[in-house]
Amino acid sequence: MAALQHLKANQMPTASLDGPDEVAKEGVRQPTVWVARLQVNAFRSYRQAGMETNGRPVILTGPNGAGKTNLLEALSFLTPGRGLRGARLSEVDRRVGGDGAEGGETSQPWAVAAEVVVAGERRSLGTGRDPASPRDKRAVKLDGAFASSQQALGEVLSVVWLTPQMDRLFQEGPSERRRFLDRLVFGSDPAHAGRIAKYEQALRERSRLLRWEKGTPDPAWLTVLEETLAEQGVAIAAARCALAERLASACALAGGAFPRASLAVAGDVEAWLTDMPALAVEDRLQEHLRASRSGDAEQGGAAVGPHRSDLRVGHLQRAMPAELCSTGEQKALLIAIVLANSRLIASERGAAPLLLLDEVAAHLDEERRRALYDELLALEGQSWLTGTDPSLFDGIGGNAEFFSVREGRIAPDS
Ligand SMILES: Nc1ncnc2c1ncn2[C@@H]1O[C@H](COP(=O)(O)OP(=O)(O)OP(=O)(O)O)[C@@H](O)[C@H]1O
Ligand SMILES: [Mg+2]
């Protein structure tokens, strides 16, 4: 794919592998996972731009519309999935010269390339829209070689983000909460992305069969699909429950300025898993699906399965469900969860996730901002933060790298 080859040909000089030790203040932990170099091509507002970092937290500042969130989105494509905006891939191609609602013309497919350091090893990751694919599909390159699927990225790196859109995570329907939980699971269990892809494909195919072939769907094909749904569905539910439990323990251990969160996954399959072995739950789910074919045909989809589950979060000190907490408390709960997740994954996998925090500082009072910066400096995964006002980041001072973003250009602040 041309854009990815182009990125390879334009590689920037190699940054030091030594990381921030030489520059950071004493007592600041050197991250074990960080982005040494990032380059974007034809990516939203960027024609071509690149930056290098030394492992310390990265602070991107600039006016509204400068391209700060676009850069975080580029990083979010270094893991499987549709990135932090959940975008269609063609939407990300850079548009130029438009004056109508459709935007301008796109000239080439977008691409992102990065050199990441994971536990002392430098890996090169590349991804971009594959123009040869009839469906919206991403091409992926790992250490210079094309990979057959996006899942390969998850084996190298996990990325977790908080965006302003997630401020309503606890108010809205469960699908965004499931996605949030699944991204946390990817960090400790990269195979989770593959299970979800297989499950969703079987779910769509079963719904299609039931909808279009009412009365005459091929029962043998439905049975095959339901077998896949039961097998993958139970594995998905079990992985989500296991992580929620470990995360709840990690949150309970954390002290400091952020609330302690309780986490639980609610759903039929999850409830069955509490008092039946996984294999028996698979049989039960498969039997349930077989028996509900006509009802599911009427409803337009399966009524039971992990695609209906919900993540329930609570504020332990307040003994309050998250949806009844204040906006700032909800934000603090989300931050507490991603921080606990980062510590948990670091201890379990030896490689913490990258943390992308879009506009979080503005929501927090000064004491919590300082507490956040202290926490970020102690993490093993590099964090990337954005804000319009550099003074919001005074508390992190010389322990972070500051970059100004303006009109598609990124410049380190001297
Ligand atoms: N496909 C695209 N092609 C060209 N430009 C795009 C495309 N998609 C988005 N943009 C533009 O990218 C610009 C930067 O967006 P971005 O969300 O990164 O800004 P930001 O710096 O995060 O701003 P804010 O402080 O308001 O959050 C916007 O002006 C947006 O219209
Ligand atoms: Mg933004």
TrEMBL record:
Record's subcellular location: Cytoplasm
UniProt source species: Limibacillus halophilus
The family note in this entry says:
Belongs to the RecF family.
Specify whether ATP-binding is a keyword of the entry: yes
Q: Which domain of life is it from?
A: Bacteria
GO MF, one term, reads: ATP binding
Q: Which residues form the RecF/RecN/SMC N-terminal domain?
A: 35-375
What this protein is called in its record is DNA replication and repair protein RecF
4Fe-4S: present as a keyword of the record? no
Alphabetical GO biological process terms = DNA replication; DNA synthesis involved in DNA repair; double-strand break repair; SOS response
Sequence segments annotated as region (Disordered)? 1-22
- Could you say which residues bind ATP here? G62, P63, N64, G65, A66, G67, K68, T69
**Alphabetical list of InterPro entries matching this protein:** DNA-binding_RecF (IPR001238), DNA-binding_RecF_CS (IPR018078), P-loop_NTPase (IPR027417), RecF/RecN/SMC_N (IPR003395), RecF_2 (IPR042174)
